[in-house]
Design a protein that fits this description.
Length: 349
């Protein structure tokens, strides 16, 4: 793709345990039969054709080679991961994996890609244990789009809300001590997950700020954040747009020039940036019949049409969610439990 680009589509897509047999996810019983795997591949093929994206950040990838092969059939000439799917040290089977990775596919050249590293000084400042690691290593990549810019893209999958502590699900409800331990493990383990997720977000945001300070480029952060962007844990990612004061100065009293550094280091939810925003926001994931927005595309000021320094604008925000809202078993039996988020970007002329 050497021609100058006037529009392009970004997408974040949680594939929900994308693993090629004979490998299994989490437990030995979780192996797709060949027929089920073919159904999953067909569903994904159909979805990729439907959304027509140019850059996709994937989550829950256990079989990156299979995914690379599949997306290449849809024009994605560039594909990267920054770590290999893993398994616990005590795992006895060579075929059981419990550590998926994120991946990035692009129709535009990926000129660099690496894992976001853990900033040890920040970990110390936050009073987090020094051995802290990401639950899934985020990708930081540079993508060159002719007619637009070299774009910095982060693909992330933050820690889930699932308890970090082991729980006995066969708890004896007649045993008060056992019930108490279950509750403590659930509540305290959930809080431990929140600490992990918030720390991951803090490290990524600091990395974004440092990268912008070194060389300003349009920034995209996309992925499954496993929580609402409005949550106390994750709001820091878009806090710049809601900042009311800097030191003793109200932001509303600042001059245009004084506001520029704030905008430069801020991220904005693509749903809010879209030219014709929808009044309602559909969930990207359901659990126990409760819908949540967990999947986001966050963008720098370069995509904010209200900013006089913007290079592009968000002209459309779309959820490909028919498999969640109105599933057809024959087509959607092996669908993802997330809806891919697709954003159309139009380059300013």
């Amino acid at each position: 793709m050497n021609e100058f680009i006037s529009t392009f589509k970004l997408c974040t897509f949680n594939l929900f345990n994308y693993i090629q047999p004979p490998n299994a996810f989490y437990e030995l019983d979780n192996i797709f039969s060949e027929a089920r795997w073919l159904k999953k591949e067909q569903w994904l093929n159909n979805k990729l054709a439907e959304i027509g994206a140019d850059v996709i950040g994937f989550q829950e990838v256990f079989s990156p080679d299979a995914l690379k092969s599949l997306v290449s059939q849809h024009g994605f000439s560039y594909f990267v991961t920054v770590e290999a799917p893993g398994k616990d040290a005590d795992q006895t089977s060579d075929h059981v994996f419990n550590k998926p990775v994120v991946a990035l596919a692009s129709k535009f050249p990926i000129i660099s890609a690496e894992a976001v590293s853990v900033d040890k000084a920040l970990i110390e400042r936050l009073h987090i244990q020094p051995e802290f690691k990401f639950s899934r290593a985020p990708i930081r990549a540079e993508i060159k789009i002719n007619g637009f810019a070299t774009m910095l893209v982060y693909v992330v999958h933050l820690k889930s809300k699932r308890s970090k502590f082991d729980r006995d699900f066969n708890v004896n409800l007649n045993d008060e001590g056992a019930v108490m331990q279950y509750l403590l493990n659930d509540i305290q383990g959930g809080w431990a997950s929140s600490i992990q997720r918030g720390t991951e977000a803090s490290i990524i945001y600091q990395d974004i700020c440092e990268q912008i300070s070194k060389r300003e480029r349009p920034v995209v952060m996309m992925g499954d954040l496993n929580d609402s962007i409005e949550s106390a844990t994750l709001k820091l990612l878009v806090a710049g747009r809601e900042l009311d004061r800097v030191g003793t100065r109200l932001v509303s009293s600042l001059t245009h020039k004084e506001r520029q550094p704030i905008a430069k280091l801020s991220l904005y939810d693509a749903f809010i940036l879209q030219a014709n925003p929808s009044e309602s926001r559909w969930p990207t994931h359901y659990f126990a019949n409760k819908g949540s927005v967990l999947d986001y595309i966050l963008l720098s000021k370069d995509f904010d049409a209200r900013n006089d320094q913007s290079l592009a604008e968000v002209t459309h925000y779309h959820l490909s969610n028919s498999h969640l809202e109105n599933p057809v078993y024959e087509n959607d039996a092996e669908a993802s439990d997330h809806a891919p988020v697709v954003v159309t970007v139009t380059v300013r002329q």
